[in-house]
């Protein structure tokens, strides 16, 4: 898997619902703040009960979210993970996340995430929609 250019990253970000409504300039700032990395199948990306250090966005591949006493969830390109640990006072991850396939992810660290939310409140609004959908799914499983 080849590294993407900043222009490629902006194109990818525009296709993700979380970022779709943002301006080109805003997408550029987000792309600049992100670090791209590759994960091998089975690689743990987020460990449950560990402090949240940033937000992950799946660019390519499939990752598995393993929650205690709940069914496993597979997510793919466009999905974002780790935001709950950044938005809660205790700041720890509620699930383990690992790569199911080879994957390419984009990461934003906690300080950059906080800055982006301050600069782009639309990101927070878009995240609310995703979080509400996850909460609704969890409530149906209970």
Secondary-structure element series: HHEEEEEEHEEHH
Kindly state the mean pLDDT as a whole number? Answer: 84
> What is the overall silhouette?
globular
Strand elements, count: 8
The percent range for helix content is: 25-40%
Overall tally of structural domains: 1
Q: Identify low-pLDDT runs.
A: none
Give the CATH H-level superfamily: Jelly Rolls
Structural class: alpha+beta
How many helix segments? 5
Query: Biggest sheet: strands side by side, in what order?
Result: 1-8-3-6
Query: How much is the radius of gyration in Å?
Result: 14 Å
CATH topology term:
Jelly Rolls
Assign the CATH architecture.
Answer: Sandwich
The CATH top-level class label: Mainly Beta
The largest pleated sheet is described as: 4 strands, antiparallel
Give the percentage of residues in beta strands: 15-25%
Distance between the termini: 39 Å
